[in-house]
Amino acid sequence: MLLKRLMLGAVLGIALAHPAVAGLLSTPSGSPHDDGYELLRQSKSRVLSAVGQDAYSTLAESTHAYDVLHYALDITVDIDGDSMFGQATITAASEEDGLDSLDLHLEGLEVDRILSGEDTLAFSRLNDTLKIDLGATYSTGDTFDVRVDYHGVPLYSTYVGGFDITSDVSFTFNEPIAARRWFPCFDEPRDKATLTMSAAVPPGYIVASNGLLIDVRSTDQYVVYTYEETHPIATYLISLAIDDYAVWSDWHFRAPGDSVEIIYYAHPWDSANAAISWDDTPNMVDFFASVFGPYPFDKYGMAEAPIFNGWGAMEHQTCTTYGHMLVNGGHSYDWIVAHELAHQWWGDWVTLLDWRHIWLNEGFATYGDALYVEHRDGDAAFRGRMQSFANTYFYEDNSIRYPIFDPPPGYLFGACEYEKGAWVLHMMRYIFDDDSLYFEAIRNYGDTYGGGVASTDDLQAEFEALYGDSLDWFFQQWIYQAGHPEFEISWTAQEVDQGPYEVEIVLHQVQEDSATSTPIFEMPAEILVIIPGEDSLVSFRFDSEYDTVYAMVDSMPTGVYLDPNTWLLHQVVSLTDVGDQTDYTSSACSIALLQNAPNPFSHSTTISYMVYGPADESRIPVTLSLYNIQGQHVRTLVDARQSHGPHTITWDGRDDRGRPVSSGVYFYRLEAPGHHHTRKIVLVH
Fold first, then answer.
1. Is the peptide bond between 600 and the residue preceding it cis, with omega within 30 degrees of 0?
2. What domains are defined for the chain?
C-alpha cells in the first residue's frame, strides 16, 4: 500500500542533517508485519466482519436488571455427533425491585426446559435472546436460580467462534460475543461470575478448562472433568479444550508455601516442540508478578488447539488456548506467550467495563510483551520492539485514523488498540520519570479493580493518585482524540563570539486535524544535537503548532535527532538543515551516523550515514567498521573515498570471512579525517 503522506520515521532513529538525505526515505519505514501482531489482530478482526459492530456495542450504562453470581455448567460432548447436551444453572441477584423476568443470550441451540427449583418456567425466544418468565417477583438483592436444559450442534466458525467439536480437537472461542453459542448467559464483560464447569467426554480425551481441576470420575460412557473457578470470570473468557493431550507442569512460587501450577496441554505428536516453545513461561510469570503484582489466579495453563486455523491464541482465564502453528520447537513466538500471559492480569483479572475500553486489555498485554523483552534482552531490544509497534500503528493510521476509545466498526482489534495502546502506557512511564512509582500505580490499579471491571477513567484516576496532578491533558489527546504528532523540523546553528554555537530548532506540528479530531499535541520530549565528539541531549516540552528549542554546544552540529531514546510516538515529515548562520568557511569534512534499522535485527539491517565535504573536494576517505563487545574487529563494511551526501550499507550478520556471528551487542564506527561516530547494534538469531 502506498502511503498518502511521506512519513519519515524519527522513531526509528533517523537523524537527518541535510536535505540530500531525503533520497534515503522515499519509501515507508515499516510494514504491517514488523511486530508480528498481525497474526493475532487479523484473526480477531475477522470476527468483527462476521458479527457486526452492533452485536457487541451494548454500553455499561445500559440497564441490566440482575447480577449473575455463578454459572454451573454441566456439558456432555458427543464427539461423534459433533453435538452437545447442556445443563446451565445460573445463580443471580436482582438489581431492581419487581424483577419477574430474565433475559439471557443463547444462539442456535435447542432449549428443552427451564426450571427454578421444581417449577417449570415459561420462556420465549427472539433471535439470540432467551426471555424467561421467572414465575415469581424478586426485590433488590434477592437471589434466585434458573436451570436451562438444552442440546444441539453448537454454532462455530473460525472468525466468529463458538464451540468446535471434532474427533481430533474440540475447543471454544468466545470473544467478543460467542459464549452464547454454547451456553446460556448474560454475554457482556461487565457481569463477571464464578464458575463450575463439568465436561463429560469419551474415554481417552482430556479436558482443559478454567480454574482448578477438582474431580475426575468415570461413567459407563464418559469421563467427567470438573473444574472450579472461584475468581469472577467474564463469559468471553470461559473455555473448553478437549484432546488426548500430553500433560506436564512447571511451577511459579508466589510466596513460601504458596505455589501456582503451570499446566501444559499439548497434542501428543507436538509435545516435544511445545516443551521447548513454552519453556520460558515460568520466567514470564515470575517477571510479570514482579511488575504487575502477584499472579492473581490459582493456576495457569496453556492448551494447544487449532484456534484461528492454528495461527492465533486467546487469553482464556487461567488457561490460554494456543494455536498449534505457533508451536515450532523454537522461541520465535515467545512474544505471543508473553502477550497472552499478561492478559491474565489485564483483561482477565481486571476486565474491561465494555468493549469501548478494549485498549485496556490489548494495550496492556502488548506493552507486557515489550516489558518482557526489556527484562530478558535488554534496553536496545526493548526500544526496537517499541519502534516496531510504532511502525505497525503508523501503517494502519495511514489508512484509517480513529481514537483509541470506542473504535469504529471493524477495528475493535486494530493497531490503535494494541500498538498505540502500548505506546500510551510507555509514554505515561516517561511522564512519571520514576519506574518504581509508575509500576506502583499499575499495581494499585490491579489491586483496586482486580476481580471486577474497569474503565479508562478508572485507570486515569489510579495514575493521577501517584502522579499528583491531573492527567486530563494526556488522556484527552492520546485516548479520546486521534492521531499523533507529525513534525516538520528545521534547525540552524550560529557561532557566538568565536565560542560555542547556538542551535535553534523549530518544530512545526502538521498533522491533519479537521475530519479526525487530531489535536495539537502537548508532551515532554528530548532532542539530540549531534556534534563531533560528544552529542548533546536537550529536554523540552512542546505544546503549540510551532515550538522553538535552543541549545548551546561546543562545536558546529552535524544534525539533530528527535526522541533518541524512543519515548514519544511521533513521525517526522521533513527535517531541514538551514545551515550554519555564521561566515563558516572551514575546509574540514564532517559526518553524521544514524541508528541502524531494524535494531535489534535477525537477518539483515541497514546503516545510513551522511558525508559532508567542502565544495572543492569531491570525495572524502571514509571507513565503517564493526566491533564486538570486547572491541575486536568483526567486519569492515566501507573503506573508500565517498562523495558528499547520504549513503547506506547493509550488514548481513557475517564477519569479514563470511561466517555468521553470534547473537549479541556490536558497535559500528564511522570514521573520516578528524571525525568519528559510534553506535550500538543488536543481533538476535
1. yes
2. 32-59+245-483 (1.10.390.10), 64-243 (2.60.40.1730), 487-584 (2.60.40.1840), 587-685 (2.60.40.1930)
